[in-house]
């Protein structure tokens, strides 16, 4: 779930932001559908250098019946302490982790690796080279995602959330090549994000890409060719089919 100005939005390739509703209402619906885990990312916080919206986080956590992860603009121990006080189980660090990898180790030492998720936004250039982008996908760092993934693991990250900017919101499938490259170089769990349009896409990413888990946004929010907003979630039988093989 992407937060912008305290509302939920969805993007396509980190652009074309579309408002999809109130975050509290969305959480209530996902509760009813028995979703496994929710990830909320404030997509403007790093670029604007703003503090996380603690009051909103607290309200979301109070309604959430499943494990909750929050990320966006986190660049201090105080941020993390305050977010955990709000009732959040996992913290996603993105831009600041890339800028200051030592922050990953500091946070993992204090809060435990199981609390720290390092989020990596990746884009491929016209020559097929992958690079990490930060600040909401605005700035190209030139850093190789595989090398940084290894570093994040060494620094103590408990999980990696790997998001393909190229596939974001397209619902055309995950970037399997990207997921394969990173999952094959680390031993910690990798959550694949960006491009889910079907349960088959998810299954392929787990079986062929080596992802430990899959996340999705548009697939759970939009319905039909006109992309009407209708929150949904696969049946338990469909989810089990992803991991049967």
Structural write-up:
With 245 residues, the protein is α/β, with parallel strands linked by helices. The protein has a single domain, classed as Alpha-Beta Barrel (TIM Barrel), CATH 3.20.20.70. Helix content is 36%, strand content 25%. It has 11 helices and 14 strands. The chain has helices at 23-32, 45-48, 54-63, 77-85, 95-99, 102-111, 145-155, 176-183, 199-207, 218-221, 236-243; strands at 2-4, 7-12, 15-21, 38-42, 68-71, 90-93, 116-124, 130-134, 139-140, 159-164, 190-193, 213-214, 222-223, 228-229. The strands form 2 sheets. Strands 1, 2, 3, 4, 5, 6, 7, 8, 9, 10, 11 and 12 form a 12-stranded mixed beta sheet that branches. The longest helix has 11 residues, at 145-155. It is globular, with a radius of gyration of 17 Å.
């Amino acid at each position: 779930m992407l937060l912008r100005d305290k509302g939920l939005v969805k993007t396509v390739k980190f652009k074309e932001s579309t408002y999809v509703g109130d975050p509290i209402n969305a959480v209530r619906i996902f509760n009813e559908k028995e979703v496994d885990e929710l990830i909320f990312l404030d997509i403007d916080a790093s670029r604007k250098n703003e503090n996380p919206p603690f009051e909103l986080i607290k309200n979301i956590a109070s309604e959430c019946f499943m494990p909750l992860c929050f990320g966006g603009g986190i660049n201090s121990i105080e941020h993390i302490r305050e977010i955990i006080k709000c009732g959040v189980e996992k913290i996603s660090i993105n831009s600041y982790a890339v800028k200051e990898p030592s922050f990953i180790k500091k946070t993992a030492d204090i809060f435990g690796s199981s609390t720290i998720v390092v989020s990596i936004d990746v884009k491929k250039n016209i020559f097929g080279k992958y690079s990490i982008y930060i600040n909401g996908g605005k700035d190209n760092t030139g850093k190789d995602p595989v090398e940084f993934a290894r570093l994040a693991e060494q620094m103590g990250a408990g999980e990696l959330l790997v998001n393909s900017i190229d596939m974001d919101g397209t619902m055309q499938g995950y970037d399997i090549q990207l997921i394969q490259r990173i999952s094959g170089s680390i031993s910690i769990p990798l959550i694949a994000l960006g491009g889910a349009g079907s349960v088959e896409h998810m299954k392929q990413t787990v079986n062929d890409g080596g992802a430990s888990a899959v996340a999705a946004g548009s697939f759970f929010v939009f319905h039909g060719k006109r992309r009407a907003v209708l929150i949904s979630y696969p049946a338990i039988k469909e989810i089990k089919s992803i991991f049967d093989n």
